[in-house]
Amino acid sequence: MRTMKVRTIEQAKEFDQHDSLRRFREEFYIKENSIYMDGNSLGLLSKRAEKTLLASLNDWKEHGIDGWMQGSYPWFSLSETLGEKMAPLVGALPDEVIVTGSTTVNLHQILATFYQPRGDRTKILADELTFPSDIYAIQSHLQTHGYEPTEHLVQVKSRDGRFLEEDDIIEEMTTEIALVILPTVLYRSGQVLDIKRLTEEAHKRGILIGFDGCHSVGAVPHSFSEWDVDFAYWCNYKHLNGGPGAVGSLYVNKRHFGTSPGLAGWFGSRKDKQFDMEHMLTPAEHAGAYQIGTPHVLSVAPLIGSLEIFAEAGIENIRQKSLHMTQYLMSLLEQELSGFEFYIGSPREESRLGGHVSLEHKEAARICKALKENGIIPDFRAPNIIRLAPIALYTTYEDVWNVVQTLKRIMTEKQYEKFKNEREVVA
Ligand SMILES: *Cc1c(COP(=O)(O)O)cnc(C)c1O
Question: What are the residues facing 387 on neighbouring strands?
Answer without folding.
Answer: 358, 379
